[in-house]
Amino acid sequence: MGLGRLRDGLAPTPPMGWNSWNRFQTKIDERLIRETAEAMIETGMRDAGYRYVVIDDGWEAPERDGDGDLGSDPERFGSGIADLARRVHGLGMRFGIYTDAGTRTCAGYVGSLGYEFRDARRFASWGVDFVKIDWCNTSGLGTRSVYWKWSNAFRAAGRPMILSLCEWGRTRPWQWGGRVGHLWRTCWDIQDTWDSLTTVLDRQRGLAPYAGPDHWNDPDMLEVGNGGMTTTEYRAHFSLWCLLAAPLMAGNDIRTMPDDIRAILTAPEVIAVDQDPLGLQGDLVRAEGGTEVWARELADGSRAVVLFDRDAQPREVAVRWTELGWSATDRVQVRDLWERADRGSCAEGFAARVPAHGVAMLRLSRSEA
């Protein structure tokens, strides 16, 4: 698109990790973060590709110190952020933190307005690898100029750090964010409900041209496992986010998650779609009668396809080869990514019975002539 996008190699595929906000909001402390990082190893999350442990809003001290520096809450993060980052790094993972572009964070803690370069240096000195920058309390400010200042501050800080823009899609960040940061929110905050999930999904249509290595559309963090949806709905949530090449930031309590949630979050063939090195985001192919077909091209020339049933009743959902740019006469090998099973070779297309609010997720490989 000729936008001069970042190509610094920090996010060649969508970042994967965990963020504290969706499950814990501001009820966080250093013990929770340590236990979560350890649980990410014990549950296989780290081995599945989740690398970033990100503290969201609520870690901050009430005010800056006498030198104007940010500090952590002395009771809940008494060991300090640098110590916590060292512990996370020692487990073979990367450490992320949160701040706000305005005068105050969304939860009312001290913001970074006017302190961008100082705070970037502070984060770098702590060993931070990922920074989410929110947009509360920013009256009168312009997103492009503020986040560009942050981008310059990161470069001046001397440590490679992923910049996550969180202005909720207010000023079409997909059109300019790739010159500034590595990912940007495309919508308001997701909630742990089916209606919220589908509303967020609808906001992603047509955004595929703006995503790619080191610059990703972010439809917000995962709600998988937080209790507001069914296992079937969470599987749909995860499948669609992977089809969208979305950053995969788990937001549940990793320490206590049941086996069915762990199976969703660590599904290897589904994650492989999200992490495909070609980096092409998927998009809607067809919507019809409460059912949808979403697809994306993968690096080996195959296609990932999600057959999606929005309806409250099970439906048969089909994809036609011609919808994917192939000929109806092509022989195509069908792989079910959730069942991890081959479904044979087909011409013309493939159909599956999809549960209500559910998906079938496929990898389609055209046979060589």
Class per helix and strand makeup: alpha/beta
Q: Looking at this structure, what is the CATH superfamily of the largest domain?
A: Aldolase class I
Number of strands: 16
Question: Rounded to an integer, what's the Rg over CA atoms?
Answer: 21 Å
Strand order of the largest sheet: 7-6-5-4-3-2-1-8
**Highest-level CATH class of the largest domain:** Alpha Beta
The residue ranges in which pLDDT falls below 50 over 5 or more consecutive positions are none
Output mean pLDDT. Answer: 97
- Give the biggest beta sheet: 8 strands, parallel
Query: Helix share of residues?
Result: 25-40%
The SSE string, one letter per element, is EHHHEHEHEHEEHEHEHHEEEEEEEE
Number of domains: 2
Assign the CATH topology of the largest domain. Answer: TIM Barrel
What's the total helix number? Answer: 10
List keywords for this structure.
single chain; 369 residues; alpha/beta; TIM Barrel; Immunoglobulin-like; 2 domains; eight-stranded parallel beta sheet; six-stranded antiparallel beta sheet; 10 helices; 25% helix
